[in-house]
Amino acid sequence: MDPVRNPFAPGAGQRPPELAGRERELKAFEVVLERVARGRPERSLVLTGLRGVGKTVLLGELRSMAVRRGWGAGKVEARPDAELRRPLSAALHRAIRDLAVRHRAPDRVDEVLAVLKAFALRASRSDSKMRDKWQPGIDVPAATGRADSGDIEIDLVELFTDVAELAADVGTGVALLIDEIQDLGPEDVSALCAACHELSQSGAPLVVVGAGLPHVPAVLSASKSYSERLFKYMRIDRLDREHADRAVLAPVEREEAGIAPDALDALFHASGGYPYFIQAYGKAAWDAAPSDPITAEDVRVAAPDAEAELAVGFFGSRYERATPAEREYLIAMAELTRGKDESAGTSDVAVYLGRKPSSLSPARDSLMKKGLVYSAERGHIAFTVPHFGNYLLGRGGELE
After folding, report:
1. Which of 78, 118, 189, 397 has the fewest CB atoms within 10 Å, i.e. is most exposed?
2. Longest C-alpha distance within the chain, in Å?
3. Do 177 and 62 contact (CB within 8 A), yes or no?
4. Can you tell me the distance from the alpha carbon of 231 to that of 210, in angstroms, rounded to the nearest whole number?
């Protein structure tokens, strides 16, 4: 098949495969937008799930939904050991620009931009030299006495309130989307929860949509005990057979091509229903197919190419981030779970490695911080990456 037309290539198609089967989440966000537009209180959303289930793509679609309704929208990707203030400033600057197009009072927009600039400038240390201070690129003088205390919790509440009021001026709202939310620092998580609490109390039209790994609810709850009342948690999982087939059929049919039923069987078996893997195997099968339709034999021939690409870009890149001690821990998990997407007992890992559990805590904690594992439940640990255990076992001696 023509590789130029490959609908599974990155960025191909109008509706990425990852969104197949996500009608529940799209509908839930539509309800949030509608309720907020009518001045009714509504909880913010948090999407949780493993790597490769399409959370980031779904966040992008939710942002588009907000923009289509005339909302201001900005997106942040949290990073370990990086404070939230700077990327959040850039995201809200984008949202305010969205609102400014509809606002009839430029001075009012400038007032909020001035507060945003004051908030943003606190991202630089007060003793930094002028040339080292970060400039947020906002062309108004910074406000004083508003969102500039240096206390992220106080400042974020004030900033969110002002931005939400600007949106209310034009009868819309603001959507702030935060990816990899588990990577936020403790102070930023606490500030975010406090700001969302304030918004829920006042009914201000600003909603936060977070996405992260399965343990995000525990992260938020550890910061603020009332966090479970602030957010509606939605677990994003792999696709069932019906939606996995649709994720393949829709892009193929857009190219006026076909795929045999046994090829769909083979793709589902290889991918496990995970959208990222569906796209990887689908792309390889399309490239390998000499003619239309794609057959099960094409999927079989293409599988090594898909697996090689996943080994480098999806699995290998993450494994390379682990230290020798952390790799030992990962391989022990893979052995104990026999390569299945299941959790392993932390005490079982210690027994397997012949070590005291306390001596393995640094490696486990570091792996959690790197986003390679998460605490599935008390005393258990699991991979954040589907099929990672199988990958480790399959590489065998290469990983020693």
Report:
1. 397
2. 69
3. yes
4. 9
Structure tokens at 52: 């490769």
pLDDT(129) > 60: no
Could you tell me the sign of the dihedral formed by the alpha carbons of 19, 20, 22, 27, in that order? positive
- Residue 279's closest CA among 254, 313, 251, 312? 251
Q: Among 361, 298, 320, which Cα is nearest to 349's?
A: 361
Distance CA 91, CA 176 (A): 7
Instruction: List helix spans (H) across 122-260.
Output: 152-169, 186-202, 216-223, 227-230, 241-254
pLDDT at 223 over 50: yes
CA 193 to centroid of chain Cα atoms? 18
Asked whether 389 and 383 are in contact (CB, 8 A), the reply is yes
Residue 122 has pLDDT above 80, yes or no: yes
Which tokens in the block code for residue 357?
Answer: 């559990």
Give every CB contact of residue 250 below 8 A, 6+ residues apart in sequence.
Answer: 13, 15, 17, 20
More confidently predicted of 207 and 10: 207
Helical H runs in 170-210? Answer: 186-202
CA distances from 249 to 25, 245, 259 (A): 21, 6, 7
Rounded alpha-carbon distances, angstroms, from residue 177 to 105, 186, 202, 255: 26, 18, 20, 32
Q: Which two tokens stand for residue 189?
A: 């998580």
What's this model's pTM, rounded to 2 decimal places? 0.89
Peptide bond into 186 cis (omega under 30): no
Structure tokens at 254: 């857009």
CA angle 8, 10, 11 (to 5 degrees): 100
Q: CA 59 to CA 399: how far, in whole Å?
A: 35
